[in-house]
Amino acid sequence: MPPTRAAPRPTGRPAPTPPESRALPMKPALLPLFAALLAVSACERPLETEYREYTNLLASTNRMRTDYDPPDAPVTRDGLIRDFETVALHSEEEAEEDRPKSSPAKPLTRWETPIRLRVFVSEAMEREDFEQSLAWIRETTARLTALSGVPIRVVTSGPLERNTSEGTITLFLADEDGRVQLADGFERRSGKPTRLSRRLRHHPGRVVCYFIPVEDDEDRIERALVLIPTETRDALRHACIQEEITQVMGLYNDADDVRPSMFNDDQEFALLTRHDELLLRMLYDPALKTGMTAEDARPLLPAVADRALAADAAGRDTPLRAPAGDAPTVR
Prior knowledge:
Number of domains: 1
CATH class: Alpha Beta
Strand content: 5-15%
Largest sheet: 6 strands, mixed
CATH architecture: 3-Layer(aba) Sandwich
Helix content: 25-40%
């Protein structure tokens, strides 16, 4: 196995430390149905068992669909414009004890540099499991590069130090021990428990996998963390990989009326749809600028949607915008 089979270590710079005061746009990947599933459990069960039963529950209720362009949810220009504003110009804040879930407005956020996606796995992960996950990561990043023009280089070894010419996504495939080690590392650097470290130490509950982006003062994404529990398997693991890496490109929000899309908490669609790819094309259109508000972007969106639809109809993978940097490399 590659050197990264060692469990994630809290030394060095294993992941960005988000400001404690900043709302973390973590992706809740479970339905309220899962809460009911947990409630009927008379005793503590392995997390892998809970996730497997949850995946079966979704499939039995016509969720976790893999349709790319479903005929029962046609994509329209007006729908794309509406959904783009919802997904790209709002962020998701989870419900807390003192407030409900919300989707506050945010500026347009995206990567302006090539990306290095660094994969870490826990020591106990089986080789075959790792190789399948890595194949899904490579497949996803290659597609996102083709649609956005942002080169994404997948690596499984090498230093973690930041490079000013390259953004960094650190993706952890972590079991319970690995998550505890990550929590220890975050707390050592911050000097106190953080929202993230507390989450890492406890049962994930209704949150399966999530991402945490860090932006600079001009709303450019500089680095991000993606965490996927190794207790996920098969279809659920694949869905987590595709959704978290896609959302961390700048499509942060989820909403019940965004369809057909992964960006919807009902989990109807498990993988990237044509609709989602069009939203990503729109996000990296040259007419839009990082830091734009919804008010700034709104007059431009009809033409942006038209260009995305035209590129899609022509079958072009060539993006509308390509940031400076080397050609995309996946290895």
